[in-house]
Specification:
This protein is an alpha/beta fold. The chain has helices at about 35-45, 85-100, 120-130, 150-165, 180-195, and strands at about 5-10, 25-30, 60-65, 70-75, 105-115, 135-140, 170-175. The protein has a 7-stranded mixed beta sheet, sandwiched between helices. The protein is globular and about 50 Å long.
């Protein structure tokens, strides 16, 4: 997939701040420090489109990115970061729920989990939330380069088991370091935005 345009559009915390456009939207969700920004940067072939940070909880707004005038990526705040106040976490929760359940342009969610570990309770809650609201989901298991090739199947099976993964959903193992899984991720995203057209 050739990326000719990848640009930050705006940040928003409420529907009246969402950008006006006619592109299909794909949200990116995951716990803090799972590698959402690295995923966006790698598949968009940009070094700093989305800001990466060693500090979890950096994304605190809905961040909209126009990709090739074809798709709008929406980076949502990472969940599960303990050092953010309870009030702040609740605020993010309301903002995300409002966006995910009411945005007509939303075609689906890329849910990022760390392939090295079992999904957290928050990961399971998010996956169940998406299934409950019948929001199409792609599970992207990041940090693939951090495990041995011989261990991949075992880790993938563990992630799917913990999530009670629906086989009708798409699963992509991905590495932001090596770009492995990049083409598969794009195929899954394109399938998401073209279904039901």
């Amino acid at each position: 997939m050739k990326i000719n345009k990848a640009e930050f559009v705006t940040s928003a915390v409420a529907p009246d701040h969402y950008p006006v456009h006619e592109l299909p939207e794909v949200a990116l969700a995951g716990r803090s420090n799972v590698g959402k920004s690295s995923f966006i940067n790698k598949i968009c072939q940009r070094k700093a489109l989305a800001r990466t940070s060693s500090k979890p909880g950096k994304t605190q707004t809905l961040n909209f990115f126009n990709i090739n005038d074809e798709i709008m990526f929406v980076d949502v705040p990472g969940y599960g970061y303990a050092k953010v106040s309870k009030t702040e976490r609740e605020k993010w929760g309301v903002m995300m729920e409002q966006y995910l359940t009411s945005q007509e342009a939303l075609r689906g969610v890329v849910l990022l989990v760390d392939i090295r570990h079992d999904p957290t309770g928050d990961d399971v809650t998010m996956y169940n939330f998406l299934k409950h609201y019948e929001i199409p989901v792609i599970v992207v298991a990041t940090k693939l380069d951090k495990i041995k090739k011989s261990q991949r199947q075992k880790h993938e099976a563990a992630v799917k088991r913990k999530l009670q993964f629906d086989p009708s959903d798409r699963f992509v193992a991905f590495s932001a370091e090596t770009a492995e899984g990049k083409d598969e991720a794009w195929k899954a995203i394109y399938a998401l935005i073209t279904e039901g057209e």
